[in-house]
Amino acid sequence: METRPQVVDHAPASAPAGPEILHPRMVPLGGPRAHPVRRTLPQRHRSLIGAWCFADHYGPTTIDAARAMDLPGHPHTGLQTVSWLFTGTLEHRDTIGSHALIQAGEMSLMTAGRGIAHSEYSTADTEVLHGVQLWIALPEHERFTEPRFESYAPEPVTAGDARVRVFLGSLAGSTSPVPTSTPLLGAELEIAPGSAVRLDVDPAFEHGILVDTGDISVSGVAARDAQLVYLPTGSTSLTIETADRPVRAVLLGGVPLGERIVMWWNFVGRSHEEIVEFRSQWQRQATGDHSKAGPFGRFPEQWATVLPAPELPNAQLKPRA
């Protein structure tokens, strides 16, 4: 078997120029007790919406001894993670000393930068867990920044028949104080049934509307539970129409990143060789002396175990735009 197979470029299938539906696929998340999630980003033909590079949607899941969110310590590089819950609570620990409870209606933003590791577990008092996990690709000038952790609980605002919580960027007269490395938008929308809500947006942004519950129509495209509507740049407003059920959705947006990224497992880099090095660094730290700090920080003493990295494929990982 070749250890460095030749890279052969094939033109990807062209993505539609207008609105499109991204359908979710089921993915097991975590360690021994994998938690099933619905993943809508990335897709084979669409890797990014702005700098948003990953979208997992999970629940509502009844939490018991057999089903819980159980994510032991694992690494990240070159990205930011956004946790947003509709119901339930997660306990977060990381290798820069952060310990926090992630609760419904409060965004947690973890900047991995040059490297961090964290764990997330549903708490003992969580009966139903329901939310989204999102990733943001950091641009070249920020991707090796120092890691950090912050949280923000936005106050809801009203826009017609919608209640809006803006956790990143600006929408409907509400602005999040949390800075971003590229222009971004992240907001939860709750819309009454039988409504048509118009939201003014930045025409330089592309957008994605991830439907949690309900049925919507936007720009002539219909979507429902767990589907994501992609909308290209150029629109100064979005009109979201709802059917006979209340709608909850997450609106994502941003200026196209304009950079090619390599995303594999929990790492975002720019080349195959970078990913190989990130994996090697993690494996050395994960199998070494956990009492000592490493490239991904110092493991919390509460961690009895960490996740090993999977094997790399026998092929060159290719950057995607």
UniProtKB/TrEMBL annotation:
Q: Residue limits of the Pirin C-terminal domain? A: 188-285
Limits of the Pirin N-terminal domain: 37-136
Pfam families in the record, alphabetically?
Answer: Pirin (PF02678), Pirin_C (PF05726)
Q: Which residues form a coiled coil?
A: none
Where is the segment annotated Disordered?
A: 1-21
- CDD domains in the cross-refs: cupin_pirin_C
Q: What PANTHER family is this protein classified in?
A: PIRIN (PTHR13903:SF8), PIRIN-RELATED (PTHR13903)
Q: Which family does it belong to?
A: Belongs to the pirin family.
What is the protein name stated in its UniProt record? Pirin family protein
What is the protein's species of origin? Streptomyces maoxianensis
